[in-house]
C-alpha cells in the first residue's frame, strides 16, 4: 500500500478537526429542540465530548498499535464517524431517542442529555482524538519536529468547522443538510485512506441513509418541518379547527381556523389592550417574539413592529400558519430583542414581551433585571408593558418566585398579574401556565398610607 504523502496527512488532520467541531455544533443545535441550550446542557455535552476525545489521544500513543496497521485503523475510524454522525445528529433519530426516554419515564432534560451524550458522543469523539494522534505518528516519520504544525492544522480545521457551520451552513443550507455534509466529509476521509470495494459499499450505504433521513421532503412529510436552521426548527400542524405553529418542539402560536381567534392569552391581550385603544391617534406597538403574528391580527390602524431573531417567521406565518399576508401596518424586524432595545430610541405605547415559551428553555439574557431596564426605557409615558410568562400561578417553584422578585425590582409600582385560564391555588405542585405580568407607566411617587398619615380623601 502506497505511503500517504505529507500533504495528505495534513489534510486529514484538518478534516478531522473540521468534522469534530461541526458535528458537536450540529448536535448542540438539534438537542436544543428537546432540552434547550442552557449552560448546564452545553456543559454536559462538551464534558463528555472532550473527555472521550482526551481518552482517544492517550490510546493513540499506545505502542500496541502497530505502525503498519495505522492506515487501516484510520480508515475504519472515519467510516464509523460517518455512521455515528447520522445517528447522533439526524433529527428523526434524535426524536426517536427522546420518545424512548419519555416512554421509559426519564423526563429530566439533564438525564436525557447525559445518557444521549454517553451513547452517541463517546465513540465519535474518542475516534477524533485517536485519529489526531495516529495521523501525528505517521507525520512524524517525515519530520519529528512537526508537533506545532499538527496542532495548528487541527485547530484551523476546528475554527473553520465552527465558523462555516454556524455562520453559513446552518443558517442558509439548514441543519439537516449540514449533517449530510459532515457525513460526506467523513466518507472522504475514509476513501482517501482506503478504496476497497467494501469501503465504497459502506460509504454508499451511509451516504444514502444520511441523504434520505435528512432530506427536506422526508422531514416535512414525517414531522411537518418547514424550517430547520441555526436558530429554529419550525413546523405547522393542523388539527380539528385549530392550527399550531411549533418552534423548537414547542407550541409558539395557535390559530383557530373556524373563528380566526388566536391563543387564549393573545386573545385576552387583543380584547383588553389592543382593540380597546382609542382611535384619536395611531399608537405604536412593539412585539418582542413575533410567534405567529397574531397580536392585533384584525387591527389595521395602529403601527406594529414585530421583532424576532428567526428570519423565516413572516414567510412561514403568511404561507402556512395564518395563510394570509400581514396587513401593511405590520412591520417585521429580524434582530435579537435585547440588541433591538439597545439600538432604538423609539418609545412605544404598548410592548409585549413574548419570548418565554416555557420554564425550561428560557432565554437567560432576557430574564435579567438589566434586560428589563432596557425594556422599561422604551415604553412611552402612560404606555403599558406586558410579559407573557410560563410560571407557577401560586409561586410554587423557585423559578417563579425569583422571576417575580426580578420583575418587581425593576417595576416596583403600577404592576398587576393576570393568570390566563382557571387554576387551583391549593394544588401542589402547580403546573406552569400563561401568566401576564403588566406594568403601567404612569406617575407614582411611592407614597403609602399609614395610621399617622392617610390623605385618602384628597387622593381619590
Description:
The chain is of the alpha/beta class and 460 residues long. The chain has two domains: 6-225, Growth Hormone, Chain: A, CATH 1.20.1250; 235-440, Vaccinia Virus protein VP39 (Rossmann fold, 3-Layer(aba) Sandwich). It contains 16 helices and twelve strands. It has helices at 6-35, 39-60, 70-89, 91-103, 109-120, 123-139, 147-173, 175-193, 197-213, 216-223, 264-274, 313-321, 337-343, 369-377, 398-410, 456-459, and strands at residues 225-228, 233-239, 242-247, 250-256, 261-262, 284-288, 303-308, 330-334, 348-353, 379-391, 415-419, 433-440. The strands form two sheets. The protein has a seven-stranded mixed β-sheet with strand order 8-7-6-9-10-12-11, covered by helices on one side. α2 runs parallel beside α5.
Helix content: 40-55%
CATH class category of the largest domain: Mainly Alpha
Described by strand count, sense and barrel closure, the largest sheet is:
7 strands, mixed
The SS-based structural class is alpha/beta
Shape: elongated
Q: What's the gyration radius in Å?
A: 27 Å
Amino acid at each position: 500500500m502506497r505511503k500517504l504523502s505529507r500533504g495528505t496527512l495534513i489534510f486529514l488532520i484538518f478534516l478531522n478537526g473540521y468534522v469534530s467541531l461541526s458535528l458537536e455544533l450540529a448536535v448542540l443545535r438539534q438537542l436544543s429542540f428537546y432540552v434547550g441550550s442552557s449552560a448546564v446542557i452545553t456543559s454536559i455535552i462538551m464534558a463528555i465530548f472532550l473527555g472521550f476525545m482526551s481518552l482517544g489521544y492517550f490510546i493513540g500513543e499506545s505502542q500496541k498499535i502497530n505502525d503498519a496497521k495505522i492506515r487501516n485503523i484510520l480508515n475504519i475510524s472515519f467510516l464509523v464517524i460517518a455512521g455515528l454522525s447520522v445517528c447522533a445528529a439526524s433529527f428523526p433519530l434524535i426524536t426517536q431517542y427522546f420518545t424512548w426516554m419519555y416512554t421509559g419515564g426519564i423526563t429530566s432534560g439533564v438525564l436525557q442529555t447525559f445518557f444521549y451524550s454517553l451513547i452517541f458522543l463517546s465513540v465519535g469523539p474518542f475516534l477524533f482524538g485517536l485519529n489526531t494522534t495516529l495521523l501525528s505518528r505517521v507525520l512524524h516519520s517525515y519530520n519529528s519536529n512537526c508537533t506545532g504544525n499538527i496542532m495548528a492544522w487541527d485547530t484551523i480545521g476546528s475554527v473553520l468547522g465552527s465558523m462555516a457551520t454556524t455562520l453559513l451552513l446552518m443558517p442558509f443550507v439548514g441543519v439537516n443538510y449540514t449533517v449530510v455534509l459532515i457525513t460526506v466529509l467523513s466518507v472522504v476521509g475514509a476513501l482517501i485512506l482506503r478504496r476497497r470495494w467494501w469501503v465504497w459499499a459502506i460509504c454508499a450505504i451511509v451516504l444514502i441513509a444520511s441523504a434520505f433521513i435528512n432530506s427536506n421532503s422526508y422531514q416535512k412529510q414525517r414531522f411537518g418541518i418547514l424550517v430547520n436552521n441555526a436558530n429554529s426548527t419550525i413546523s405547522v400542524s393542523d388539527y380539528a379547527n385549530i392550527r399550531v405553529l411549533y418552534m423548537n418542539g414547542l407550541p409558539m402560536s395557535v390559530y383557530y381556523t373556524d373563528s380566526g381567534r388566536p391563543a387564549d392569552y393573545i386573545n385576552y391581550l387583543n380584547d383588553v389592550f389592543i382593540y380597546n385603544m382609542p382611535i384619536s391617534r395611531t399608537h405604536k406597538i412593539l412585539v418582542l417574539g413575533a410567534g405567529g403574528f397574531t397580536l392585533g391580527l384584525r387591527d389595521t390602524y395602529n403601527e406594529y413592529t414585530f421583532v424576532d431573531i428567526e428570519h423565516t417567521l413572516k414567510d412561514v406565518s403568511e404561507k402556512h400558519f395564518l395563510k394570509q399576508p400581514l396587513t401593511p401596518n405590520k412591520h417585521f424586524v429580524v434582530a435579537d430583542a435585547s440588541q433591538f432595545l439597545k439600538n432604538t430610541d423609539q418609545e412605544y405605547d404598548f410592548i409585549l414581551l413574548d419570548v418565554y415559551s416555557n420554564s425550561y428553555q428560557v432565554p437567560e439574557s432576557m430574564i435579567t433585571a438589566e434586560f428589563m431596564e432596557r425594556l422599561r426605557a422604551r415604553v412611552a409615558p402612560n404606555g403599558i408593558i406586558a410579559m407573557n410568562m410560563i410560571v407557577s400561578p401560586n409561586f410554587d417553584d423557585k423559578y417563579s418566585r425569583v422571576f417575580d422578585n426580578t420583575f418587581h425590582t425593576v417595576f416596583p409600582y403600577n404592576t398587576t398579574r393576570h393568570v390566563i385560564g382557571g387554576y387551583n391555588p391549593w394544588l401542589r405542585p402547580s403546573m406552569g401556565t400563561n401568566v401576564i405580568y403588566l406594568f403601567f407607566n404612569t406617575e407614582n411617587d411611592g407614597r403609602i398610607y399609614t395610621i399617622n398619615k392617610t390623605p385618602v380623601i384628597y387622593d381619590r
